[in-house]
Known about the structure:
CATH superfamily: Peptide methionine sulfoxide reductase
Structural class: alpha+beta
Mean pLDDT: 91
Number of helices: 3
Helix content: 10-25%
Oligomer: single chain
Amino acid sequence: MSETTKRPKVVKSDAEWQKELTPEQFYITRKHGTEPAWTGPYLNEKSKGIYRCVACGAPLFSSETKYDSGSGWPSFYQPIEGGAVSEHSDNSFLMRRTEVRCASCEAHLGHVFPDGPKPTGQRYCMNGHALKLQKADDQNNK
């Protein structure tokens, strides 16, 4: 896909999302929740593959851009491609942050901070429960 690929929008009601997601996934992705640091899946995951949106399955991040930020959440220095995620101002909890959502279904994924490694200097700090890893081995079998 190109750097600015547009994906079809996925729109569902809260009731529909609740049927498809676990309570924790629903809280994080649809209610803008945050899992406690050091508790979510994928924090120490080293497998190669594509991290997809747990809600709609859209590809979001490559394992090639994942790194240990020491923050307690899975972190990446860039999305898999332009247009995979959208960024929004978040002034909740008396903080100024940039929220990251899935561009396809608007699932809350986490936040991006300007303190990441080269080449981007960005730290996409994601909730592990908002992601689903499609391991490279699984991709080759399709």
